[in-house]
Each structure stands twice: as structure tokens, then as C-alpha cells.
């Protein structure tokens, strides 16, 4: 049963990775500016969490309607880790290997967006200048930064996964 659940979660992770990769490639091909849209992040977050929930629920169904907190979390996390890793590898391939100019363009757009946002919130000019100087030193699409971002996303998704596991878990009290 346990290996079936892990196999299901890995397969769901592969599907998720394929979808995330397709989204990245399509946005790259259609309009790079979509990468800095706030709603894209929310859409991807919902997609990733939905796949994790499906994995936990499938494992629960495989267990006859019962699953431990740990079991639900593990199945959720395997799916998320596999799927987002594949998406990250595709992003690294595009922005660090295939088209570094696209990464340069997006880094510039991020700086412009940051400046506009800080001005809108009334930040003093010296704070804006300092923040933009620091931000301009970072390449958000370098291999290292994308891998670091992957790790931070995993940590965030893990926190969400704890909540999902709390909701999905159901123990069989008749066996106790």
C-alpha cells in the first residue's frame, strides 16, 4: 500500500511538473511580461497545492478512507517536491542556458515594478535608490537563485502541507 501511494504521488508530481513546464514554456513563448504578474503566482500556487491535496486524498482512498497525518503530509510533499523540481529545471534551462537575455529583461522589469511599488507606497527617494541598487546586483534567474527559490517554495508549500494533512487525516478509531 505504501509503495502504491508513493508511486501515485510521484506520478502526480510528474504530471504537475509537466503542467508547470508547459506553462513556463508557453509564457516564455507568448509574453515574458506575464512572469512578473502577481496573479500568475497565485494561479501556480493554487495549482501546486491542488495536486498535493489530490495526492493526499488518493492515499486516503487507498487506505480505505483512513490516513495518518504523517502519511497525508508525505504524499502531499512528494507530489509538490517532484512537480516543482521539474518546473524549476525547465526555468533554469530557459533563463540560465537557452536565453539569458530573457532573464536580463525580466530582472529589469522587476526593478521597474519595485520602483513603482515603492513610490506608490510613499517610500523616501533615498530608500528607493538604496533598495534598487541592492536589487540590481541580484540575478533572480541565475541557477543559484532559482534553486534557492525552489528550496524556499518547498518550505512554504510544506507549511501549507501541514494544514492540508491536518484536514485530510482520518484515523481508524475502531482498531484502537
List keywords for this structure.
81% helix; 176 residues; mainly alpha
Describe what is shown at a glance.
By secondary structure, this protein is mostly helical. Helix content is 81%, strand content 0%. The radius of gyration is 20 Å and the shape is elongated.
Folded structure, characterized:
By secondary structure, this protein is mainly alpha-helical. It has one domain. Helix content is 81%, strand content 0%. It has helices at residues 2-30, 38-62, 69-98, 100-120, 125-136, 143-168. It is elongated and about 65 Å long. The two termini are 20 Å apart.
Give the SSE map.
Blueprint: H1 2-30, H2 38-62, H3 69-98, H4 100-120, H5 125-136, H6 143-168
Helix pairs in contact: 1-2, 1-3, 2-3, 2-6, 3-4, 3-6, 4-5
Amino acid at each position: 500500500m505504501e509503495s502504491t501511494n508513493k508511486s501515485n504521488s510521484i506520478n502526480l508530481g510528474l504530471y504537475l511538473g509537466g503542467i508547470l513546464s508547459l506553462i513556463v514554456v508557453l509564457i516564455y513563448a507568448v509574453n515574458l511580461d506575464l512572469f512578473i504578474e502577481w496573479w500568475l503566482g497565485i494561479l501556480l500556487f493554487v495549482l501546486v497545492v491542488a495536486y498535493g491535496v489530490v495526492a493526499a486524498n488518493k492515499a486516503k482512498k487507498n487506505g480505505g478512507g483512513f490516513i495518518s497525518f504523517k502519511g497525508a503530509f508525505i504524499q502531499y510533499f512528494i507530489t509538490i517536491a517532484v512537480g516543482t523540481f521539474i518546473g524549476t529545471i525547465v526555468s533554469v534551462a530557459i533563463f540560465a542556458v537557452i536565453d539569458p537575455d530573457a532573464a536580463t529583461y525580466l530582472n529589469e522589469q522587476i526593478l521597474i515594478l519595485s520602483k513603482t511599488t515603492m513610490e506608490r507606497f510613499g517610500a523616501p527617494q533615498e530608500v528607493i535608490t538604496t533598495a534598487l541598487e541592492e536589487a540590481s546586483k541580484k540575478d533572480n534567474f541565475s541557477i543559484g537563485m532559482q534553486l534557492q527559490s525552489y528550496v524556499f517554495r518547498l518550505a512554504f508549500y510544506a507549511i501549507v502541507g501541514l494544514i492540508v494533512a491536518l484536514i485530510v487525516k482520518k484515523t481508524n478509531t475502531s482498531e484502537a
